[in-house]
Amino acid sequence: MLGSLTLRSFTQWIAILPLLSALACNGASAAVPIPNPAVDEAMSKTKGQATVVVAGGCFWGIQAVFQHVKGVQSVTSGYAGGNANTARYEMVENGDTGHAESVKITYDPSKISYGQLLKVFFSVAHDPTELNRQGPDEGTQYRSAIFYANEDQRRIAQAYVDQLNHAKAFSKSIVTQVVPLKGFYPAEDYHQDYAIHHPDNPYIRINDLPKIDHLRQQLPELYVSK
Fold first, then answer.
1. 224 and 44 in contact (C-beta within 8 Å)?
2. Of 71, 100, 121, 138, which one has the greatest count of Cβ atoms within 10 A?
3. Given 58, 80, 212, 219, the catalytic residue
4. Residue range 199-214: mean pLDDT, rounded
5. Cα within 13 Å of Cα(104), Cβ side
6. Phi, psi (5° rounding) for residue 159?
7. What span, in angstroms and rounded, lies between the C-alpha atoms of 59 and 77?
8. Coil, strand or helix at 95
9. How far, in Å, CA of 77 to CA of 67, rounded?
């Protein structure tokens, strides 16, 4: 992602702000109301803990969105899709490690279902029709993916992709990969809770804070302020 962690000079950063603004406006308008998943897990009757790993562009924004979702206990930025020995930012950003910038969401299945989390993922957290890019970020490390941990997750995720494509919920077909989770590797400490620690960062203000507003406006029943 573009930001203070890259090698861009201040002059370069200022020069690309108009482009970021345009891309952010496009992304903001891309938030789409979608139906609930027709296939989902049953809500648990007792408090518990489950996890889901998804990828959809820069992990700063995905983490920030899910930190405001009802029933979510924690969200960790990290890497999935590649090997442990390449799960480092300076390697992943080259786009040739197989990793995608991802988040691991730990949630209480008595308060929110796996399918409802996917509804947030598809509708406001990112644009699932963008291939290997989101907003100003481009490369396979920014691809859209659901990394399933078991057969139930695979079945629900694939059924939802098929449902949304069949309903033509988006103007283009969904390109989200539904692939097995081989491992999740937490990102460096300075990436964690980045939007919380750097709310005035231009990248966060332009690309990520609007996503939280979309969550609050479009899915108020799932939104929590923190």
1. no
2. 100
3. 58
4. 96
5. 18
6. -65, -35
7. 6
8. coil
9. 11
Q: Regarding predicted confidence, which is higher, 33 or 30?
A: 33
> What percent of the chain has pLDDT above 90?
85
CA-to-CA distance for 124 and 106, rounded, in angstroms?
Answer: 19
The CATH number given to 10-218 is 3.30.1060.10
Locate the domains of the chain by residue range.
10-218
Q: Report the relative pairing of strands 50-56 and 144-148 from DSSP bridges.
A: antiparallel
Residue by residue, DSSP assigns 16-28 as HHHHHHHHHHHHH
Reported pTM: 0.89
Tell me the residue type at 99: H
- Distance in angstroms (rounded) separating the CA atoms of residues 203 and 163: 33
**Residue 197 DSSP SS3:** helix
Q: How many other CB atoms are there within 10 angstroms of residue 9's CB atom?
A: 9
Contact, 207 vs 64, CB < 8 A? no
- End-to-end distance of the chain based on CA atoms, in angstroms? 25
Q: What are phi and psi of 42, to 5 degrees?
A: -75, 140
pLDDT tens, residue by residue, 131-146: 999 999 999 999 999 9
Number of H helices and E strands in the chain, helices first, is 8, 8
The pLDDT mean for the chain works out to: 90
Tell me if residue 58 is catalytic: yes
Concatenated DSSP letters of 199-210 = TT-HHIIIIIHH
Whole-angstrom distance, CA of residue 19 vs CA of residue 30: 17
